[in-house]
Structures are given as C-alpha cells and as structure tokens.
Specification:
- The chain is of the alpha/beta class and 491 residues long.
- It has 4 domains: 3-100; 117-231, Rossmann fold (3-Layer(aba) Sandwich), CATH 3.40.50; 238-428, Rossmann fold (3-Layer(aba) Sandwich), CATH 3.40.50; 434-488, no CATH class.
- 42% of the residues lie in helices and 16% in strands.
- It is built from 21 helices and 17 strands.
- The protein has helices at residues 11-20, 32-38, 48-56, 61-68, 84-90, 124-136, 162-168, 172-184, 198-204, 215-218, 227-230, 243-256, 261-279, 300-309, 328-333, 346-353, 369-381, 408-414, 417-422, 434-454, 476-488, and strands spanning 3-8, 25-27, 43-46, 75-80, 95-100, 117-122, 140-142, 157-160, 189-194, 209-214, 286-291, 316-319, 358-362, 383-385, 391-393, 398-402, 425-428.
- The strands form 4 sheets. Strands 2-3-4-1-5 form a 5-stranded parallel beta sheet. The protein has a 5-stranded parallel beta sheet with strand order 7-8-9-6-10. The protein has a 5-stranded parallel beta sheet with strand order 12-13-16-11-17, sandwiched between helices.
- Strand 2 (25-27), helix 2 (32-38) and strand 3 form a beta-alpha-beta unit.
- It is elongated.
- It starts with a strand and ends with a helix.
C-alpha cells in the first residue's frame, strides 16, 4: 500500500504544524530515518531537503527508496509545496498522492525580528588548528546532517555549514528553513564556514547575520591567517606559470618524452592556445586522449607535466579499470549521504590532498557510462561537486585520458561524439622505432645514474656497460625493467 504525502505552503504553515506537533518533526537523514521508521513510535518526517538534494544527485533515488520502504500509518511524511511533485515523480512506489496539511492557506506574516548573530569563517590552513583546539576544549564540531545527535547537549557547538550552502544554492524554500533554524537556535551554537564560501553565505543569508569574523576572533589561540596566505598552498597549474616556466615545460616535453614527435608538436601548439583561451574564460580544462597498446608511454606525458609543475607533489593518477561497475561514481566522488565511506571518493580526495593541476585517467575506456557522463560535464564546467555537496574548482587543470583502444574506429565505438568534441587533443601512440628505443635506453640509464648520485650511491659502471636487448619488444615498461635489472648487477 502506498502512502499519503502532506505539503505545507509557506513558513507560517510549517510553524503552525510544528507547534501543533509538539516539536516532533524530524528532518530526513539517510540511514537514520530508516531506523526511525522501523521503530514503533509515531513519526513526522520532513523530506524537503532530501528531495531537493536528490534532484541534483539522482543517484540517491534508490538509497532514499530503501530508507522509505517500510513507511506505514504511524509515519507522516511532509514536504514543502514546491517539491511535492518531484517527490511523487521520484518515488511513485512510495507515495500515491500529495495533500495539503491545512485546507485553507495560512497567510504569511512578516517578521520584524532582527538577528544579532555573528558568523565565523576559517581558512584551510586554520582548519586543523581549529579541530585540535575544539578537541582539547570539548567543543563539538559538526554539520547539519549530524546536528540532531547534539540536541540536548550543553557543550559549545561549532556548526559548519560549508556543504549546506553549496547544496541550497538556488533553492529559496530551503533557504527560509535555514533562516528559521538560525532565528531559533540556542546560544551555544556558533556558525562557521570555509572562507571560499563566504561570499555565497553573505548573499544567501544576507539578513540573518549581523557580522562576519575570522575564527581567530572567537578563539584567540588560533592564528589569524589571511586568505591570501592560502593561495601559496594552492595547486600549481599551467595557467600559473610565467613565460620562462612555460618554456621549461615545453623543453621537458620535448626532451623527456622519447619519440612521438608529431604528438609533441601538436601538444605544445594546443597548450599555447589553451593558455590564451583559459585567460579569457573560454576554456576551463585542457584534455588529452591517448590511444594505443600498453607500454608505449601514454601515461608518461602526464607524469612529465605533473613533475615539471610541482616536483614535490604526488601524481594524481586514477585507474579506471576499477570503475566499470554501476556504482562506480560513488567510488570516484563518494557514496550517498549516510553510507559507510561517504566522506569522499578517490578523485575528490586526491584533488584535495595533492598540489598539482594534472590528473591522469588510465584505461578510461573501461569506465562505466555514468563516469563518462560525469567527465563530460567536468570538461565543460571545470568544477565538480562530491557526494557531500563540496565543490572542487579545477579550472586550469590538465587531464590526460589514456586508453588501450588501438584505432580510431574502436575509439568511436566506445567513446561518445559528445565526449570526443570536448577533448582538445586525441592521438594514437605508435611503437618507437629502433633508433628511438636506443635513445630511450640511454635516457633511462642517465636518469638512474642521476638518482644514484643524489642518494650518495657509488657508481660502479659506465653507461656503455649497460647492454640489453630491446628489438624483441615495444613495451617500454619491459625495456625499463631490463635496464634496472642490469644496473642492479653492478650495485
């Protein structure tokens, strides 16, 4: 049997119903709501936020249905009027119709109450110090999803609404519910946000807060670090380089990628175009798609660019051979809210922790179609939002897609025309010639000698002592292994 869905038309109707219900209205929370529904008490659950979130993250529909499947007469589900049609559309097996909470609409009353609240912002550099200080002083740091756990807590609470502001953008019905909460929240709750979202919160909640201060004004033990300082720790991207640094990058591409002369020429030309187009806002991401058999050096170009931009940063590399299942997007940007491991996926974690504007996507042809659609939007927008509604701006990044696809026909069968049109450079890697293989061997021997000198190791051989065969293979990994094995004989 399907259930009735009840909607309220405005803030005053919600307030009236809230008071009549003796404050028993609960917000929808993944996993927690399922447990609440399964108990034997009467429940009133507002699913407005969940439906709004699902509208922008429709991968959560199945998860929401699992949470709602045991609904019965003991549970009353309510929603803002602006969202009930979406709810009926998303969950036709759960709800059969939507009815008003009140037969006659209750008119809005204008509230003249002014708010004296102060809003505190923090920089990324300050955040670890803030968490440490909070732990030492028994201050609770939480977000809206977990706030209910501390309803009866008298400790000081820092409510971080960074992800909330990202998720309610353009949703006025959610904004007024947020305003309603702040108007009635207890004094022990302080509101904080990441500095990068400060302008958005000023615009979204412009009448809610009287002032905005650095977190150091609240806790003097935390150093007041200006936002400009953070930029020194931001990822290094090709668009940040000066003319000499760009020329050095091009020299490294020419000298460290052995062979593939036509590709290197086209790559440098396209990168020059990208620098101009990015500056005027016409292109966010520079993307390369490389075809060819394994072992031809396709990922090497990503490593060369990455290490030139920032030698101290780890390379951001994701193997999409592991992303062929239907729930692959969850592994990439995080599972839906409430699932174990929902704090973030591989892409969001690596972008957040590494300080270089290059991403290598290996074996991309094996990725699930949802993953390919995700990158379709990413290449267009230059940004993405993870499962926790945190936004990542990767404007100016270089993305290198590699694939074991071996010809153009196979490429067109596996990669959509829409995706192809967003890639800046597509190239098929061919095996190196014998002369190029010899050059590659000499280059790798030279690199090994330099590394050994750097580590203070004694060199007991000359470059000409390293003699290996390479006529029988095109796999550069195999050739490099033969070089290393030969060198190890002299160590």
């Amino acid at each position: 049997m399907r259930n009735k869905l009840y909607y309220y038309r405005n803030k005053d109707e919600f307030n009236k119903f809230y008071n009549e219900s003796q404050n028993r209205i609960l917000p929808f929370e993944f996993v927690e709501t399922k447990k609440i529904i399964e108990d034997e008490s009467d429940n009133i659950i507002d699913i407005t936020n969940m439906v709004a979130y699902t509208d922008t993250n429709q991968a959560n529909i199945y998860s929401a249905i699992i949470n709602l499947k045991d609904l019965d007469d003991r549970n009353q589900i309510i929603i803002n009027k602006d969202w009930y049609e979406k709810a009926l559309y998303f969950f036709p097996t759960v709800f059969d119709e939507a009815l008003p909470l009140f037969d006659i609409e209750i008119s809005n009353e204008i509230s003249l109450k002014s708010f004296e609240r102060t809003f505190f912002y923090y920089n990324d550099v300050q955040y670890d110090d803030l968490l440490q200080y909070a732990q030492q002083n028994k201050i609770i740091v939480t977000n809206f999803a977990l706030l209910q756990k501390y309803t009866n807590c008298d400790n000081e609470i820092l409510l971080d609404i960074t992800s909330t502001i990202a998720s309610i953008k353009g949703s006025p019905q959610l904004i007024y519910l947020l305003e309603q909460y702040f108007a009635s929240s207890k004094d022990n709750i302080k509101v904080i946000i990441n500095y990068n979202k400060l302008d958005e919160v000023k615009e979204t909640l412009r009448l809610t807060f009287k002032s905005y201060q650095n977190i150091s004004e609240l806790y003097h033990e935390i150093t007041n670090i200006s936002p400009e300082f953070e930029k020194e720790d931001s990822p290094i991207k090709i668009v940040d380089l000066n003319e000499n640094e760009i020329n050095n990058l091009f020299d490294n591409i020419n000298n460290k990628l052995i062979g593939h002369m036509d590709f290197k020429s086209k790559l440098i030309s396209q990168l020059k175009n990208f620098l101009v187009l990015n500056k005027i806002g016409e292109r966010k991401i520079f993307s390369i798609f490389l075809l060819g058999k394994p072992g031809l050096g396709k990922t090497e170009i990503g490593k060369i660019i990455s290490k030139t931009l920032n030698p101290d940063s780890k390379i951001i590399k994701i193997n999409f051979g592991n992303y062929s299942s239907q729930d692959a997007l969850n592994s990439l940007i995080g599972s839906p809210a409430g699932y174990i491991g929902c704090e973030g996926g591989e892409l969001s974690k690596k972008v957040n922790s590494n300080k270089v504007g290059v991403i290598i996507c290996d074996e991309f042809e094996k990725a699930d179609s949802e993953i390919k659609n995700f990158f379709l939007e990413l290449l267009e927008d230059g940004r993405f939002t993870d499962s926790m509604s945190r936004e990542y701006d990767i404007n100016g990044y270089i993305i290198v897609f590699t694939s074991n696809i071996q010809n153009e026909n196979e490429f067109k069968n596996k990669i959509s025309p829409e995706f192809e049109s967003r890639v800046n450079l597509i190239c098929e890697f061919m095996p190196l010639t014998l002369a190029e293989k010899k050059e590659y061997v000499n280059f790798q021997i030279g690199c090994c000698i330099e590394k050994m000198k750097k580590e203070g190791l004694k060199i007991k051989f000359k470059p000409e002592d390293i003699i290996i065969s390479y006529n029988d293979t095109d796999d550069l990994r195999e050739i490099k292994n033969r070089i290393l094995n030969k060198i190890s004989e002299f160590v």
